[in-house]
Amino acid sequence: xxFARLVVPDLLLxxxxxxxxxxVPGECCGLLAGHITHEVAxxxxxxxxxxxxxxxxxxxxxxxxMLLAFRSMRAHGLELLAIYHSHPTSAPVPSRYDLEANTYxxxxxxxxxxxxxxxxxxxAWWLGETGYREAALEVAxx
Length: 142
What we know:
It contains 3 helices and 8 strands. It is α/β, with parallel strands linked by helices. Strands 7-6-5-4-2-3-1-8 form an 8-stranded mixed β-sheet. It starts with a strand and ends with a strand.
């Protein structure tokens, strides 16, 4: 764990939810980047990534989109803070597949948008090899 709290601007979170809704019944995925100061990670950029799996229950990040996102992060001095994806028909809780596919360990937060309820629900998680725990998420009005 590189930071204690993830801060996401409200407008950026709305864009992320819009991305999730636009791909129903499939999952969306993307990256969130920004800066870490005094154990607080503040998101400043969102990078939507094509879901090559085109699935309602899992995602596979498009390699070219990932390359372009990381190039942009490097060019602007940003750090990868979070990976986001959606669960179109279930709660925003990590699935077994999410744990199995996690290649970042606890170096980034996993933000999940659940669309199964009356409205979208967003939760953040630290994923380990066999389990997960909720991460501190703050939505900031900017």
